[in-house]
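A quick aside before the break. I want you to see a complete sequence-to-structure record at least once, exactly as it would be stored in a machine-readable document. Don't worry about memorizing anything.
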Amino acid sequence: MYFNIFIVMYLTRSLSNAILFEFPPLDEDSLLTNLASKRSKMLFKHNTYNDKGMDLESFKYLWTLFEPIHKLQDRDIENLFIEVVNNRDGLMTLNKFLTQTLNVVQTIESKLKTIYTNYQYQDNKMSKKKFFEAIREIGLDIPENIANEIITEERDFDFLEFRYMFAKLYHQSLRINNMTNRTIIFVEPLMEV
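That is the input. The structure line, written in tokens, reads:
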């Protein structure tokens, strides 16, 4: 028997566990890792309509938050929905959501690798200065004092450190810009009796 607790969390927190992961979300075959898949399922579950599926509005909201990275316009996001649901008014199933999540996550990861490659220097490293140049190119508007709180010292970043710090700053940007006013409720087992 499990005791469950309801925890109210801001959407940003769930997004950090889903669309722009703070960990590498793809395995060596470019598929979602078990953890990425599990967190995507939680995200889907908490954004469904009457537990029957996800509507277009919720789907668009989730992906629009990450437009600066994936560069998909509203129409492109709608097309991702319509491609698997076959109309604008239907509900997307979990399997279809995971398919489209994989497609967009692959796009995001590819863009992050391209950005890192464009700004790295010798030995496949990126300096703090180049890191800030890279995030400005994406259009991430983080006040310098907040960025310096997250990246405190002058050092070099490998790709995994870059993507982790980028994800952290991106989520901070969402909070600063107050783009995450929706809340969701998670049900998590706390202990077994």
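Two observations worth writing down. The beta strands are 2-10, 126-127, 156-157, 183-192. The chain has one domain: 2-18+33-192. We'll return to this after the break.
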